[in-house]
Amino acid sequence: MCALAAAGCAASPKRPKAAQAAPPPHRPELIGSIALVNSALNFALVDMRAFEYPGVGVALESFSEGKQTAILMVSPEKNRPFIVADIVKGTPGKGDLVYQ
What we know:
By secondary structure, the protein is mainly β.
């Protein structure tokens, strides 16, 4: 009887699985502001204030007046409350807000 019940389940049409809820979109988190830009050496100094340090190699974005000004990548150099971020793309400016 168990074999018949199992065979009956296998023969029934498969129902589509319920759509899985998509993960919420990543919300950028404010982590600091640009304190200094060195265009010649292609890096920016980010004032982290009281925020937690992002890991080395983490991508950051800088914004001014709601528009993205640059993409940055965290480098190993840091001295609380500052971190150094290499400029990957764009032109960050002093005072730009930095998001992770």
